[in-house]
């Protein structure tokens, strides 16, 4: 069995089963307390006792994350909820956090859940919340719970409630601050200086071309001179670019209090964080004010105002573009020593850059400036009127505004500037979105005899407007600084006959009107029935297709309330649940049912001596018939509790079928377009989730709690509709890191994100060839398939070249030999958390894991392929490649001598052809990560009171402590392509860092 799988199982046994056994043996004492009693969760516009929930809901309360210091709320919930995958796309400051609930339902659309913060819809809400201000997070996972939210509920709903003050409570001031430092955790191993020049010697001398031989001598010296490279000073460019100690200063301040009829809460957050990469960092300031007031015994109101301002600094290592945007390449492939060029290694050499496609990584990092800013404003108010004892009217109105900007400066040595007369280029982007939400509900609750009825009727409108402006400004003076260019774009001066690109604007209005109802009926506190219905009308669809209808129903049976279990001392909760529902997705741009035109000089034409910008419809064809994407979900679950709630958990099985997928389909170019949004095809997700928790020991001076979860999800494409090939239900899709590389397969019967490429078969050996001693040439033996066309740029293969498997046995290795290489879906994933309290000490340990997922390590392909350029460094394993030159620097051709020379080598010669995917780059991405370790000490309550404090706690934390994995890249969780069709691609990701910090939590 794989060692990583064994590690996961062993730790799972250690941290879960053994504590449960210990708990079962522990005798109860009078001081022990029941757990999970009368816990309330937020479900569908109303709060419900957790014991009465009929849906699949995961919940994280403030208590679980209050002692975990983090700048990102999403990190605080990673690994805590079954069926909820939380992962960072890469390790850069402010990096995107992916949250996927029960697998991805959409193919080309977004799989992000719907976020509701204090009753108001927001996008990516966790990125503007501090973990310290969160009261609870509820995740609705099945359609029987999400359908009440209709639009955009198909991918799950995340309900976030922020903390407020308490009535009749004295004013309390809390300060929580920490100071920490980040450092790179691992680097990619590359050739050392001696190995590097030996490889260059082979490249320059193997062909026997005298000009190449002379070029090598001029740059590196003779073969006899190469010994000096064993002792030459090595430049570790990864360390120089990513090796700085990056400090973090985080401050959280909150003031809460209340009177007899009001309460308030004010929270402030400030984060100043450096990135481990030169020029990168993150800055954020947040303020939130919440006020509750009882106008009378029947009328109450809540006002909330939140403002967040954050900026991410640094151009990072990559973007979702192609290979040309890869900045990591320079740190990995730049020559690992000083010298080797007529220009000092720390100066820019344009000739060397053209010959190698590389720029000194330190110079490049300092020559690219990027500021990515975002300001968020949330205003919302709630009015609640208790019309009668049983009937309540509630109205929530919210306003959300987001302003985003990108300022990017590309200095003279960047590739973008070198394409534009070696003059700096500035990219500017501004976007503003505004959303007004109004939700009105009537809630009737009545208990009569053995019957309990809860009825809800509501209406909601969501009005969204957005505008964007982008400008690409070229030909700035070479001496201009980034700050000067941002402040004075008029300084750019186009050469004669050229004009600047016209700024691009975009207007994106979105209107949604909804009506919904929900009924919940409980009989004898044993049998529960819930039904809901929602109708949504969306402006993104054309006339006749604007309305979607989303019904749902669920039932539950509290078995523990039956007479045969009611007096059980062992079973405290046992509830069966089942549900079915439909939810919708409308996440496409507005007006795709009509044709619009955009202008740019890219579509221009010559008029006189200038270029006149033109207009075009773009590459997406309108579709007046596009309509709602809908998901139907079936769920069955079991909630259980034993020993008065000390051992508790849930088990869920589900199936979600999504049809009428909003697919960006490729269409025949005879139409004049390349793509069209269509309702084509369907997907299915099937899975099982299990979560369990235990209060293992609950003594006055020692407490030990554990929570664990494990989930498995299987995704499959059921249909591709009209978007598939006419002859088979499939098509190929590019990841985009290398142009024209179709390395993903989209096929009926396979999961989304299937890697498509060749199977690596090692290398060609001497035994595969006939040798002509007269001409000293090798030719493949008859019957040995050639990889020349696929892997070697059509050059005849030689001993040591990369060999691929001839899967169809036709003797030729071509596209017909490409196959399914696996996918990014794990067989199972989850996490487990333990908290300990001994007197005044506390400790928490949080693990998360994934088993069975594959990672597409595109870096391995690029850094082990020669392709077009020499003088590029390679992965360290290339040192073990096939050799053509002996220890004296002489080329060896004789078969016997050549075989002896390579008896102990295993790696093939780096391919000279274009980049392509083969199984060498598909790695097992299974991992077990100790995500967080926190140790704290709190002053004795009596002593703290003498100091005028109600609480004083010191803590020490390590995030990303260690990762057990066989993956060779920076991080097995890297996911850099940002497209549901191309998951699990690790290409030029910003390295993930370890974070060590210490802080203080003081309450006055």
TrEMBL record:
Keywords in alphabetical order: Cell outer membrane, Membrane, Signal, Transmembrane, Transmembrane beta strand, Transport
The organism's place on the tree of life at top rank: Bacteria
Pfam families assigned to the protein according to its UniProt record, in alphabetical order: Plug
Primary localisation category: membrane
Keyword hit for Zinc: no
Membrane topology type: Multi-pass membrane protein
Residue stretches making up the TonB-dependent receptor plug domain: 50-157
Compartments in which it is found: Cell outer membrane
One cellular component term from this protein's GO annotations in UniProt: cell outer membrane
Signal peptide residue numbers: 1-24
Coiled-coil residue windows: none
Keyword Signal set for record: yes
NCBIfam families for this protein: OMP_RagA_SusC, SusC_RagA_signa
Entry similarity comment: Belongs to the TonB-dependent receptor family.
Protein name: SusC/RagA family TonB-linked outer membrane protein
Organism of derivation: Chryseobacterium hagamense
